Every structure is written in structure tokens, then in C-alpha cells.
């Protein structure tokens, strides 16, 4: 019954691979943001040099190129850019709402549980020391507490896309300029200003490259000629080698760091320099390798994409924004639960309830969208067929 309901809410005219991966990324974000969650050991961040954030940004770019590129071709750049900025405003409102909810949630928990360390750990202490200034800087996106830095990145790169959208018709020029900006941001340590002198956790001037790669892959010009990377066996082998090497480096970084420092003194500094803030080339390459393999090895019409297990993640992926916001709030609630009662039963409860809540949010928002945009039935005419209207 519930599976049939979800199937009725899913748009099957989309590329379900994209929605499935985005749904998995949203689930991984919830798990990874819940300290102490045992499921964190199976999420991709422990075995690849990229994680759910890279997938989220790349697929956000893909969706933007697909939807707004088509709008630009039909109705012009100004109209399409206005639609993009409308989406930017929606994301901004969602970010501020999430900021308020998350701050209240953490502050209340810190007071009730006498755990002031929560505020310091999650970089929410400015709300205690200087609340009015902190609120102002948060509204300007110059202050971003922990866990609340993905949406500001998304807002910024989407606003950049609104300006650069005409370049999508010349994708290689767009990607060349984007790559130049990424390189300059990394080499010269260029980022956007922040309140207390700390760099943005995700430097948008670097991460925009991954977003624009997604835009180029998603855009389909009216006359054909979209960006495509055909399958080559040697390229597939190269991607696999990169992923295996990345897995080995990830294990060294997160699980065997003492061994790396002691036994690999020349290699350890290189591993330590694989940063996330400015999108290290290996993190970028890992995400592109995964994308290449998934795009070519998973058929678009694969039957299992419509299976009972897959449709859960597909529906979550199609309702990404509310599911993401709910996941961030639920992750802290899950953390509190795991700290209050450790053990397997609580682990199961946190993950089952968390996933059920995320799916429930996806179902409600999808249902609301269908009800909102479904064509209304015309009211029956009180006049008999052929009768002239009353002209008063």
C-alpha cells in the first residue's frame, strides 16, 4: 500500500539514476551528521575521497542545467535568470528557517542537558556572546555554524549560474572559465569574506566547478550537441584505478593515520593536503570517476530503479530540499538520543525513525506539490448547452 503511494508520487519521466543517487546522498548526510551512528562506517566518505556533498553539488548543477537551460532556450535568459533567482530566494528562506530551528534545538539541549560544549563544537557560541551581531552575520551568510554550510554554498553557486547561464550554450568555454576560477581560488587562496576571519567551509569559488560540470552535463540544446563523454574501456579502467587508489588513501587518512605518519613520512603530507574546503583535485576526480562509471554501467531504464527499495531513495531525491533540511535537524536529535542511551537498540531506533521521518517528509511534500499544481476541474455550467449567456 505505502509503496503504491510512493510510486504514485514519483515522476518517472526523469532520470531515476539521478534521483536515486541524490536520495542516497541525503540519507548519507543524515547518517554522517549524527555522531556515534554506527551506519556511518558504511557511507562513502570512509571509502572514497569524495562524499555526499560532492554528489549533492554535482546533481544540483545537473538539475539546474536541465531545467533552467530549457527555460532559457524557450523564453530567454532574463526570464530563466529570474526563475533561478526565485529558487535562490527559496533556498535562502530554507536556510534561515533551518538556522533558527537548529540553533533553538541545540541551545535548548545545551541548557537542559548542561552541555555548553554543544555550542562551542557546532560553532554556535556567538549566539551566546553576541546574539544580535551573530544573527545579522548569519542573514548575510558571513557566519555559518557547523552543519549549516551546504545551503549557503548552493545559494552562491546557483546565483553565479543565473549570471553565467548564457555560457551554457558554449559549454567548453563555460567549463574553461570555471576551471580557471577554481584554480585561482586554490592557488591564491581566494574565498568569500566571513565574519570572524574564518574561511567558508565550502569555498564557493572552488566548488562552482563541480556545479558547472553538472550544468554542462544536464543541458540539452534544442539542436542537439549536448556535452557527452562516450564509454571507453581504457577510461573505465582508469576510473576504477583512481577509485581503488582513493579508497586506500581514505583508509590511511581516517583509520591508519598513525601508520601513515610513521611508515610513510614522505606521503603523509600529501594525504594531509587533500582538503575539502577548496575541492582538492583528487576529490574532484573521484566524483567525476564515480559519475562516469554510474552513467555508463547503470542503464537508464534498469528495472531495479523501480523496485520497492529503490523508490524510497528516488522519492527522497526528488524532494531534496525539505528532506535535506529535515535530515540536518533530525541528525542532532539522533545524536542526543544516542548519547542518552547507547547500544544496538537505540542505534536501530535512531536510524529507522530517522529514515522513516525523511521518507514521510518526501511523501508529504510530493503530495502537496501534486495537489498544488494539478489542474482544477472546471465547475459545471449552470446554463443548458446552447443557451446564450446572460449579458445583464
UniProtKB/TrEMBL annotation:
A Pfam family the protein falls into: OpgC_C
Q: Which UniProt keywords apply?
A: Membrane, Transmembrane, Transmembrane helix
List all membrane-crossing ranges: 20-40, 52-69, 89-108, 146-165, 172-188, 200-219, 231-257, 277-298, 310-333, 345-370
Q: PANTHER family, from UniProt?
A: BLL4819 PROTEIN
Protein's name according to its UniProt entry: OpgC domain-containing protein
